[in-house]
Structures are given as structure tokens and as C-alpha cells.
Amino acid sequence: MPTAARLVAAICLAVLALVVSQQVKPLMPEGTDFGYFDFVNMGLGLLCGWFVMGTRAGRGISAGITNGLTGMAALVFWALFVQGSYEMFRLAMRNRYDGPFEAVLAIFEKGVEFGAVLLAPNIIWTLLAGAVICGLMTEVAWRRWR
């Protein structure tokens, strides 16, 4: 059922995904074509906020902070998986893999490569602070608009 907490969580995580996506771009190799990178990550933020954070709202402030961290972790996991899958598909269309198992394994290899970019201190701090803010805003929305 749609609630204000789900909507606030979805919007907050989408904004967090956009901010982090903008921080990642300068860290990638020059000439990288990002295409729909921001929109895909924002869509994943909307989905993770709605389904992961929104359903767990209303359990208190400390649970709200933990909820934000859980939503952020889910967002990072799915973003790495989706971006890794896209990169694997792009390379598979150029016949870079010998078989399907090698292609599936490449999803995780690309995800790890992209995850290494997220280890920059400014991105880590943005993710942590954004997760706490998202969790608290979701909790406030749940308390205000039940």
C-alpha cells in the first residue's frame, strides 16, 4: 500500500543515487560514455527506497538510521549489479567472451571493478551521511503522515 514514508524513502534514495552518480563520473576513465547512468541509478534508488526502506518505517529513530543504511547498501548492491550486467552485455555484443559462463562471471568482475571506484573517501562519506538522512526523513514522514 502506498504510504508517505515509502514516497519519501524513494525520493530520498533517488536523490542520493543522483548525487553519488555525479561524484563517480570524474573518477572513471576519461572518455567514458555514461548514457543513462544517472537515470538508471535514480530508478534503482526509487525502487530500493519504496520496497526496502518504505516497508521498514515506523520502528524508531535508531531503527530509522539502520533502515537508511540498509537501503543504501541495497542501492549500492543493485547499482553495481545492473551496471556490471550492462557492461557485460556491451562487451558480449562485441564477442569478447568465449561462453555464457565467462560472461556471467564478468558481471561480478565488472561489479567489483566499479565498486573499487566507490572506495573514494568523499563517496563513502556521502553514502553514509545520505543514508542516515534518508532513514531519518523516512521515519519523520512515517510519524507525521500515518
UniProtKB/TrEMBL annotation:
InterPro entries membership: TrgA (IPR047784)
The keyword Transmembrane helix is annotated on this UniProt entry: yes
Alphabetic keyword roster: Membrane, Transmembrane, Transmembrane helix
Transmembrane segments: 36-53, 65-86, 123-142
Classification via NCBIfam families: tellur_TrgA
Name of the protein in question: Tellurium resistance protein
Taxonomic lineage: Bacteria, Pseudomonadati, Pseudomonadota, Alphaproteobacteria, Rhodobacterales
